[in-house]
Structure formats: structure tokens, C-alpha cells
């Protein structure tokens, strides 16, 4: 049996490989097909839907701008200074700069108006602390949470809502 060859012979007797022409045709067809698919996908994604638009869910409102109120002592000093004992019986001093974060002008005004009561609550809280507990990061966080609870209690009593979001110690010195 004789094998058939796929080579073509042109008029001059030179053999040509038919694969080059087929390869070019396949590449051109592939490019056209890719362009058609890309165009169809673009049309599908860009076109609007025929159905009525569904009511969008209400997006949560952007939170109001944070308002920071400095908690000042009765004399107007920007910090609290209290004596804190340690387990070894030595006396230490703690100095705190405190700010209250809220998002309501009413709360900021109430903080200023009721500052003597707030300062009194915080002075009592700060003077009951132990030096050894406050040396740890956990102790400082617990003090911050207790101060927040104390101020929120005053705000709840005075304006009917906690109002204060967070208490920040902008300065914390112990010696």
C-alpha cells in the first residue's frame, strides 16, 4: 500500500505545505470569534435590565462627625492628678488627660454643663485604683472602660441617654 502525502505540488513542480494557509485561517477565525464574544459580553453587561428596578436597600447613614470634649478638673486644669498606692506601700502619682468622644452636639454641651459631676465621678474612680494593676495594658483598658461607664451613667441621669461613645486617655503618666 502506498501512503498518501498531504503535500501539494504547484505548477512548477515545487512542493508546498498546506499547513501555513490553514494556520493563518484558524488564527483569523479565532481573533474574530474572540472579538464577537467580547462584544457580546460587553453588550450584555452594559445593557439595562428589562424589569423594573428593585428598590435599593437603605444604605446606613454615614456616622456623624466625632466630637471630642476635654474632661477638665474643677479648677480648669486639663488633667487629673491622683495618688495611687502600690502593694509595697509606696505612694505613687498618676496624671491623666481625658477626652470623651461623642457624635452629638447635645451630648457635648451636656458634658460641658455637667463637668463638675463628671469630674467628681472620675476623681473617685481614679483615686480607688492600684498602681500595680495600672502598670499593665489590661489595667489601663479596664480603667478606660470604668471611666466610660461612669460618664455614661452621668449622661443617662442628666440627658436620658449614654451619649458618650468612648473615653480616650490622651496622656497617662504614673510615677
TrEMBL record:
Membrane topology: Single-pass membrane protein
InterPro entries, per database record: FliL (IPR005503)
GO BP terms: bacterial-type flagellum-dependent swarming motility; chemotaxis
GO cellular component, one term: plasma membrane
Pfam families: FliL
Keyword Transmembrane helix: yes
Main location: membrane
Cellular compartment(s): Cell inner membrane; Cell membrane
Coiled-coil portions: none
Keywords on record: Cell inner membrane, Cell membrane, Cell projection, Chemotaxis, Cilium, Flagellar rotation, Flagellum, Membrane, Transmembrane, Transmembrane helix
Spans through the membrane: 23-46
Biological role: Controls the rotational direction of flagella during chemotaxis.
UniProt family annotation: Belongs to the FliL family.
PANTHER family given in the database record: FLAGELLAR PROTEIN FLIL (PTHR35091:SF2)
Name used for this protein in its record: Flagellar protein FliL
High-level lineage: Bacteria, Pseudomonadati, Pseudomonadota, Gammaproteobacteria, Oceanospirillales
